[in-house]
Amino acid sequence: MPTSSLSQHDALFKKFLGDITVARDFLEIHLPPHLRERCDFSTLAMESGSFIEDDLKGQCSDMLYSMKTTAGHDGYVYCLIEHQSRPEKLMAFRLLRYAVAAMQRHLEQGNEQLPVVIPLLFYHGTTSPYPYSTQWLDCFADPELAESVYRQAFPLVDITAMPDDEILSHRRVALLELVQKHIRTRDMLELATDIARLLNLWAIPKEQFRSLMYYIAERGNTSDESQFLQHIATIATDYQEDIMTIAEQLEAKGEQRGIQKGIQLGEQKGRQEGLQKGRQEGLQEGRQESARSIAHQLIANGVDRSIVKLSTGLSDHELNDLTRS
């Protein structure tokens, strides 16, 4: 079908469904009864329906509507209507992507819960009836497996609630789980023996070991890093060379941090002393200026010079300067 013809079909569709009264009739007629009874059609409103993605350039959902639910709270239902003149095998997945985009925008508008988005496909192509399923799970090669994943809670690995004894039985991933469980809450020195034993039991590549040690040094609460590394080296002897290198690097880094901190403290102290000195000098200058002003007035009024000197604290030299000026 020529592009111009497709555009005409689409333009007519949008002209009609852009009328909220026509859209209300459409939804009241075509929504399944169990969904229709949850929608308050008196609150139906048109929303922008453009959800353009990097790999869907030029494609967007045709019409998007929002309305309140009949449950009496502030829940929202969105209806997304897609207009198609040609069958598309994975159309159900595309509708799902549009629905997720509508949910995302709902959150970006300041809402804290997801709305229910109901996708509807409006089809009027030459192939009849529509040849593909609109059940998005049918887009998978194994719909039964997909259903078992997407219709229940996703698997959760919560190491914060997992006993250490259970973690220690997790073979090659036990190191990661044990360290990340306690990185914020335990002294890593207390875990050194368990870490070393795991290293002996499940050898890991050198780059993983170095990453683990640096992570503990940077993010962990270790009361004595030197003792921690020494303990690891004593038990996990295969990593002694790496531990020596890491210890030297951490020591050099610590020295550098100490130097940098010393410079920063010195600069801060210098700024504070300079500010204090400036304040003192400014105060002294203000007092001197006030004394000169008072002395000038007293001399102008004929007060004896000795009295002026005693009253203002100015020297003979400063008083001479005032009389000359």
UniProtKB/TrEMBL annotation:
GO biological process: DNA recombination
Tree of life domain: Bacteria
Stretches for region Disordered: 266-289
Example GO molecular function: double-stranded DNA endonuclease activity
Transposase (putative) YhgA-like domain span: 8-201
InterPro entries: Rpn/YhgA-like_nuclease, RpnA, Transposase_31
Family label: Belongs to the Rpn/YhgA-like nuclease family.
The protein, known as: Transposase (putative) YhgA-like domain-containing protein
Originating organism: Sodalis glossinidius (strain morsitans)
